[in-house]
């Protein structure tokens, strides 16, 4: 077994790898950027090496710096985690050439599966069914439009080098094709440095079902069953579970068999995932499930597989990388119960899921039984705009799906983060959505009910009343009877908005100046109202601020334009994603002083919407 390991990653996955390494008595080395000097993974590792400035391309994506850090600390092996350099064959080769153990598959396997078009061709040759579509080299807009028409709308345009749900556009009709193609190619070029696309038939009621595979250097290859990751938002996984609802044993055998064939075709070693798309318009059946892509690394959602199989996948990775055979054979593996994972993000569903950056003044996770929290942050840490704003993965296990689902909901409801906004309430609502409850999930569920799911939760009257009383001095409550129905109301500020709260009479001996109300996975700051703290009315100021540092890539309105609530104003590209800023209410565009191409800082005033004079 290797004696030391450098983790070429950050956040929760770096912490998770360190945990297993420590249990196996392996010395751990973290690497970190400027922004991560105080990060949890740095604190938890035995040693840490600073590798550069905050932007990933100056630190976590610079292979030479990471290899140098391994040499400097004498680390015997490098684990890449997921994202960053994990699927970079050149980096893997560099690690091996430096005489360091690479915790991952052969570089050739990464290359073979690296581009979606080449991977699909390879899989088709290996007898694995692939999604129908065009995956050739011809890339002119007119040619691709013809191919799309041949495939038949709706189609999906996909960057061949894409990942993380980026570089993908659903096109419903011919009229939208040219725009979608241009925007997809633009995103692909800037995110992946490769603007080639493929076109796929868009599968009706799609379900994302993937199979965990594992190979060793002795030629053994097993699968660890499937995961269902159909609950997605904009092609990104939100909640994952294992096993897949409605999977019968014959379909499972066929699917997992296809996954093994796929892995064998690239001589796979280590942990990998074969992703399939299934037609969810009827019961699952093997002839309606197609290969989509292979991820040649550990997957974000691997803990649900660990929860139902009892296997520590990182331990297996380290054993296999050390030359040991797989600890278990196929017939030793079985499914025990059900597991579900939710990705808790620092983002604001009410504002189009914009990342919510800042200091985590309050960070609390519920502690339901049978739950696991994988996090990379601690209370007091900053969520920066440099990286993926994931706060934690919360994983719950149960005897059956219902139990896992309830435990996960409970765990999320009992969590509280402040002042950074999170998607916790959104996740709880998604878990309680009647279609999710009944297992009728496809990747469009969130899109269909997005508005209701993303609506900001409001604290209950009981929670507000309890908090309000602790803010008011006893004298102000004179004449109130304990536990009586609210007899009088007072004004407060709830996250800066004026609210009236009925007082129940449980006044505080020592009133505080502000109190956090925590409920439904959310936290709100309640403070006494003062004349000088009155906010600018319910509608807000109409100021359109840059939610994070980034580049303006499109301006859709002009000074003086009349706009309606929800209308698209500008698009900013930040954190490799396009974010659309919309009009908060009906009005007129004023103070628009920005053009496409401009680089903007967080909170820069981009425009102002003024209410129309009536
Ligand atoms: P999964 O299927 O495991 O969710 P994804 O393809 O969504 O995998 O990506 C895994 C993680 O890596 C995600 O958190 C994503 O944001 C991140 N990621 C993807 N591509 C990159 C990249 N080029 N650089 C840094 N992080 C990335
Ligand atoms: P990425 O590399 O970004 O993970 P994938 O090819 O795995 O890209 O696709 C991401 C998601 O997009 C899938 O999980 C699925 O929800 C959706 N998707 C991909 N291909 C199709 C398709 N042909 N039909 C319907 N949905 C699809
Ligand atoms: Mg994928």
Question: How would you describe the overall organization of this protein?
Answer:
- The structure is a single chain.
- With 614 residues, the chain is α+β, with helices and mostly antiparallel strands.
- The protein has 6 domains: 100 residues, Rossmann fold (3-Layer(aba) Sandwich); 159 residues, 2-Layer Sandwich (D-amino Acid Aminotransferase, Chain A, domain 1); 69 residues, ATP-grasp fold, A domain (Dna Ligase, domain 1, 2-Layer Sandwich), CATH 3.30.1490; 109 residues, D-amino Acid Aminotransferase, Chain A, domain 1, CATH 3.30.470; 68 residues, no CATH class; 68 residues, OB fold (Dihydrolipoamide Acetyltransferase, E2P) (Beta Barrel).
- Helices cover 27% and strands 30% of the residues.
- It has 17 helices and 35 strands.
- The chain has an 8-stranded antiparallel sheet with strand order 14-13-10-11-12-15-22-20, sandwiched between helices. The chain has a 5-stranded parallel sheet with strand order 3-2-1-4-5.
- Helix 4 packs antiparallel against helix 5 and helix 7 crosses helix 8.
- It starts with a strand and ends with a strand.
- The structure holds adenosine-5'-diphosphate (2 copies) and magnesium ion.
- The site of magnesium ion has 2 residues, from loops.
- One adenosine-5'-diphosphate binds next to strand 7, strand 9, strand 10, strand 13 and strand 14.
């Amino acid at each position: 077994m290797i004696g030391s390991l450098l983790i070429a990653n950050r956040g929760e996955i770096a912490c998770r790898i360190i945990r297993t390494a420590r249990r196996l008595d392996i010395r751990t080395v973290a690497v970190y950027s400027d922004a991560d000097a105080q990060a949890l993974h740095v604190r938890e590792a035995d040693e840490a090496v600073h590798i550069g400035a905050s932007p990933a391309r100056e630190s976590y994506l610079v292979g030479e710096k990471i290899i140098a850090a391994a040499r400097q600390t004498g680390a015997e092996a490098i684990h890449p985690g997921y994202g960053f350099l994990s699927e970079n064959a050149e980096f893997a080769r560099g690690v091996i050439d430096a005489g360091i153990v690479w915790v991952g598959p052969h570089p050739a396997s990464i290359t073979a599966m690296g581009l979606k078009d080449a991977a699909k061709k390879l899989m088709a040759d290996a007898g694995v069914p692939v999604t129908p579509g065009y995956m050739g080299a011809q890339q002119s807009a007119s040619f691709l439009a013809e191919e799309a028409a041949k495939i038949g709308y709706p189609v999906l345009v996909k960057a061949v080098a894409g990942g993380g749900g980026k570089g993908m556009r659903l096109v419903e009709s011919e009229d939208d094709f040219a725009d979608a193609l241009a925007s997809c190619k633009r995103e692909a070029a800037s995110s992946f440095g490769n603007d080639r696309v493929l076109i796929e038939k868009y599968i009706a009621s799609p379900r994302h079902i993937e199979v965990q595979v594992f190979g060793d250097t002795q030629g053994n290859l097993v699968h660890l069953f499937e995961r269902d990751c159909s609950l997605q938002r904009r092609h990104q996984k939100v909640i994952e579970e294992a096993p897949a609802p409605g999977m019968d044993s014959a379909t499972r055998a066929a699917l997992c068999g296809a996954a093994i064939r796929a892995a064998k075709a690239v001589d796979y070693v280590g942990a990998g995932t074969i992703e399939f798309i299934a037609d969810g318009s009827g019961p699952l059946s093997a002839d309606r499930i197609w290969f989509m892509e292979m991820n040649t690394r550990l997957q974000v959602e691997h803990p649900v597989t660990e929860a139902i199989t009892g296997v520590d996948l990182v331990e297996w990775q380290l054993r296999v990388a050390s030359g040991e055979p797989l600890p278990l054979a196929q017939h030793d593996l079985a499914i025990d119960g059900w597991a579900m994972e939710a990705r808790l993000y620092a983002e604001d569903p009410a504002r189009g899921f914009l990342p919510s950056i800042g200091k985590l003044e309050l960070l609390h996770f519920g502690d339901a039984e049978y739950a696991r929290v994988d996090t990379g942050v601690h209370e007091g840490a900053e969520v920066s705009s440099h990286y993926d704003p994931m706060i934690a993965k919360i994983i719950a296990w149960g005897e059956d799906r219902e139990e896992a689902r309830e435990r996960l909901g409970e765990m999320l409801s009992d969590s509280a983060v402040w002042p950074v906004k999170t998607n916790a309430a959104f996740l709880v609502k998604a878990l309680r959505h009647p279609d999710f409850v009944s297992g009728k999930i496809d990747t469009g569920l969130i899109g269909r009910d997005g508005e209701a799911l993303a609506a900001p939760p409001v604290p209950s009257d009981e929670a507000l009343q309890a908090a309000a009383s602790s803010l008011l001095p006893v004298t102000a409550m004179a004449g109130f009877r304990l536990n009586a129905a609210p007899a009088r109301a007072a004004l407060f500020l709830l996250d800066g908005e004026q609210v009236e709260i009925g007082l129940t009479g449980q006044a505080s001996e020592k009133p505080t100046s502000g109190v956090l109300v925590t409920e439904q996975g959310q936290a709100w700051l309640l403070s006494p109202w003062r004349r000088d703290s009155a906010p600018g009315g319910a509608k807000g100021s109409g100021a359109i601020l840059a939610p994070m540092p980034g580049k303006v890539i499109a301006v859709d309105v002009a000074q003086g334009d009349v706009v309606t609530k929800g209308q698209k104003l500008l698009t900013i590209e930040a954190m490799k994603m396009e974010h659309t800023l919309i009009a908060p209410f009906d009005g007129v565009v004023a103070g628009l002083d920005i053009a496409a191409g401009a680089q903007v800082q967080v909170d820069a005033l981009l425009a102002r919407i003024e209410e129309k004079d009536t």
